[in-house]
């Protein structure tokens, strides 16, 4: 199929650009008809020009002719020879039930930074490619840790059947969740920290889940990062320089940040540039 597209796409592109979908479809139909019925296919017979339609047409009304490439031949097989590929008396398979509870397993971040596990997606970004991620999973939460430090927590969509399937593939019974092993309640290391990126609307607002938060009308139309730490103000920053742009009260309840779309592990805390003058600073007095 990939080889077919390697032929199809360059040739159909030469016929464009097309003024409408109807014109494009007509060009594709004509190309396919030529490919199947008029254009010889070198892999079907290297000596005699043969088109694909010749090989798919029935040889007679009663059935289809068996065609083999010239490099193959039919070999007779004795029906008396027993088939030893299947054991007539297979040993029973013993299934050990999973003890229940959360599971843990390790996965390596691919070059894309986009990880999949049982139809669930986990985005860590290309910057973490090659790193070993520890997944802690139950039916309520999924915690991702790297080097013993939690980097992301998400609401789980795994069922008990999913956990059983992961256990069969090597997941092990989990210990305490990472959130409980990093400081006590109220400590900064215990809080959930996320980052997201949003585009500021024309009215200066951004959407965080079910909440709408004022960033600043001066940032309208600008792409900003938002550093979200439970119990702390929201920090709006420039995604490229991580320069702090604005701080705003945090309206999110505990656990809401973990449900935000396109969340990612946090980077360094955004800071205002040291040489940037305060917005309301008085002008210098003439000498």
Helix percent band: 10-25%
Main pleated-sheet profile: 5 strands, antiparallel
**Count of the separate structural domains:** 3
Strand order of the largest sheet: 6-5-4-1-7
* Helix and strand composition category: alpha+beta
**What is the radius of gyration?**
31 Å
Strand content: 15-25%
Distance between the termini: 77 Å
What general form does the structure show? flat
Number of strands: 13
Give helix and strand order, one letter per element, not per position: HHHEEEEEEHEEEEEEE
Low-confidence stretches: 180-190, 278-285
Mean pLDDT: 78
Please, how many helices?
4
Organism: Microlunatus ginsengisoli
Protein name: Integrase catalytic domain-containing protein
Keywords:
single chain, 287 residues, 3 domains, four-stranded antiparallel sheet, 15% helix, disordered C terminus
What does this structure look like?
Pfam families: rve_3 (PF13683). Residues 1-49 form the Integrase catalytic domain. This is Integrase catalytic domain-containing protein. The chain is an alpha+beta fold. It folds into three domains: 2-56, no CATH class; 103-181, no CATH class; 191-259, OB fold (Dihydrolipoamide Acetyltransferase, E2P), CATH 2.40.50.100. The chain has helices at residues 2-14, 21-37, 52-56, 160-168; strands spanning 103-108, 114-117, 120-123, 132-137, 141-146, 149-155, 172-173, 193-199, 205-208, 211-214, 223-229, 234-237, 244-248. Strands 6-5-4-1-7 form a five-stranded antiparallel beta sheet, covered by helices on one side. It has a four-stranded antiparallel beta sheet with strand order 8-11-12-13, with no helix packed on it. The relative contact order is 0.08.
């Amino acid at each position: 199929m990939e080889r077919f597209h390697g032929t199809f796409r360059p040739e159909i592109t030469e016929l464009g650009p097309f003024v409408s979908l109807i014109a494009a479809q007509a060009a594709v139909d004509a190309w396919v008809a030529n490919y199947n019925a008029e254009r010889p296919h070198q892999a079907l017979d290297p000596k005699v020009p043969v088109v694909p339609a010749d090989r798919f047409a029935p040889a007679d009304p009663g059935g289809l002719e068996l065609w083999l490439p010239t490099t193959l031949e039919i070999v007779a097989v004795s029906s008396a020879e027993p088939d030893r590929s299947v054991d007539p008396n297979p040993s029973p398979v013993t299934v050990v039930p999973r003890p229940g509870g959360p599971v843990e397993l390790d996965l390596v971040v691919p070059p894309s930074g986009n990880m999949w596990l049982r139809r669930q997606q986990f985005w860590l970004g290309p910057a973490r490619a090659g790193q070993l991620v520890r997944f802690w999973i139950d039916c309520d939460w999924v915690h991702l840790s790297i080097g013993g430090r939690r980097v992301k927590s998400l609401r789980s969509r795994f069922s008990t059947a999913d956990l059983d399937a992961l256990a069969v593939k090597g997941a092990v019974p989990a210990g305490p969740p990472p959130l409980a092993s990093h400081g006590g309640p109220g400590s900064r290391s215990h809080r959930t920290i996320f980052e997201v990126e949003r585009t500021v609307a024309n009215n200066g607002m951004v959407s965080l889940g079910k909440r709408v938060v004022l960033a600043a009308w001066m940032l309208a139309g600008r792409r900003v990062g938002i550093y979200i730490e439970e119990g702390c103000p929201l920090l709006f920053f420039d995604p490229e320089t991580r320069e702090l742009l604005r701080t705003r009260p945090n309206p999110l309840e505990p656990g809401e940040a973990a449900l935000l779309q396109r969340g990612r592990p946090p980077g360094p805390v955004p800071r205002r540039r040291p040489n940037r003058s305060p917005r309301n600073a008085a002008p210098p007095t003439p000498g």
